[in-house]
Amino acid sequence: MILTRCCFTCRPDPRFVSFKKEGSVGIRLTGGNEVGIFVTAVQPGSQAQLQGLIPGDKILKVNDMDMAGVTREEAVLYLMSLQNQIDLIVQTRKHDYESILNTQKGDLFYINFTVSRKF
């Protein structure tokens, strides 16, 4: 029998991170609606860094908005639209994050359109 062990950084408990937006949010995102929204970079000295956000953190909620099924663009636009307080629920998911970087997965798009004909 082969036993596998998951390290603490694989799926630790979700945590709450809160900070005031000072200009930019101070993070860069990757991922998307297929895999979730992940922090890929944190600006040094930003409130996001000071409050403990790190690359590999999966963003589960932003100010009570669930990030499941959200495209990367929607997540970026939502974060940019926030004026002051940013409250996040995140979970460090290094293994998933590294997999996303290696496979280039992110958003899965569906195009739905209706054709109307006039005679």
TrEMBL record:
PROSITE patterns: PDZ. Residues 21-94 form the PDZ domain. InterPro entries: PDZ, PDZ_sf. GO terms for molecular function: cell adhesion molecule binding. GO terms for cellular component: bicellular tight junction; plasma membrane. Pfam families: PDZ. GO terms for biological process: cell-cell adhesion; cell-cell junction organization; protein localization to cell-cell junction. This is Tight junction protein ZO-2.
